[in-house]
Amino acid sequence: MKIRLFQVQDAEQIARLFHDTIREVNIRDYSLEQVEAWAPDDINFRDWAKACSSKFTFVADDELIIAGFGELETNGHIDCFYCHKDYQRMGVGSKIYSAIETKARELGINRLYTEASITSKHFFIRMGFSVIKEQQVEARGQTFINFQMEKFI
Predict the structure, then answer these.
(1) Over pLDDT 70: what percentage of the chain?
(2) Where are the domains of the chain?
(3) pLDDT digits (tens, 9 = 90+) for 87-141
(4) Residue limits of the N-acetyltransferase domain (predicted)?
(5) Is the sign of the CA dihedral 40, 45, 51, 53 positive or negative?
(6) Backbone phi and psi for residue 38, each to the nearest 5 degrees, phi listed first
(7) Is the pLDDT of residue 43 over 90?
(8) Distance from the CA of 19 to the CA of which of 11, 80, 86, 98 falls in 20 to 30 A?
(9) 55, 47 in Cβ contact below 8 A?
(10) Rounded-to-integer distance, Cα 77 and Cα 137, Å
(11) Contact assessment for residue 149 and residue 121, using Cβ atoms and an 8 Å cutoff
């Protein structure tokens, strides 16, 4: 498995990974209504290509299967960070995170921050992040709990 930067042809696979991971993994921590609002069925692949191209999006490529991805913005924000439902707890997230932290150091970023789901909170704690606060956010008529987290590097 190699970690590389996003390519436009990855957009469809990444969008499906996002959708399926939320629907099949995050469902453990959120209701059906919440995951359906978070990851609706009407995926727009062009939107994903544009969003992933505008950030440093790192992809875990397992022989043409995208096993996970994570996005770093130039201000230190880690936006989307997801591992494929079939690659959970296999070190994929740690490899993606390592690439993100390396890039952040190259860019002179000294603080990384994210809004972690209930599902991903413990992963980010293992990566050295601290919880700033629990919060409630709204999306498509549903309220979600997530956690503002940060790490100084």
Answers:
(1) 100
(2) 2-113
(3) 999 999 999 999 999 999 999 999 999 999 999 999 999 999 999 999 999 989 9
(4) 1-153
(5) positive
(6) -70, -40
(7) no
(8) 98
(9) no
(10) 17
(11) yes
Full DSSP string of the chain:
-EEEE--GGGHHHHHHHHHHHHHHTGGGTS-HHHHHHHS-S---HHHHHHHHHTSEEEEEEETTEEEEEEEE-TTSEEEEEEE-GGGTTSSHHHHHHHHHHHHHHHTT--EEEEEEETTTHHHHHHTT-EEEEEEEEEETTEEEEEEEEEEE-
Q: Is the pTM of this model over 0.90?
A: yes
What span, in angstroms and rounded, lies between the C-alpha atoms of 118 and 99? 23
Residue that is written with structure tokens 């740690």 in the block: 94
In which residue are the tokens 């952040």 written?
104
Domain 2-113: CATH class, spelled out: alpha beta
* Token pair listed for 73: 């913005």
- Token pair in block for residue 107: 């860019």
Burial of 152 (0-12, 13-18, 19+ CB in 10 A): exposed
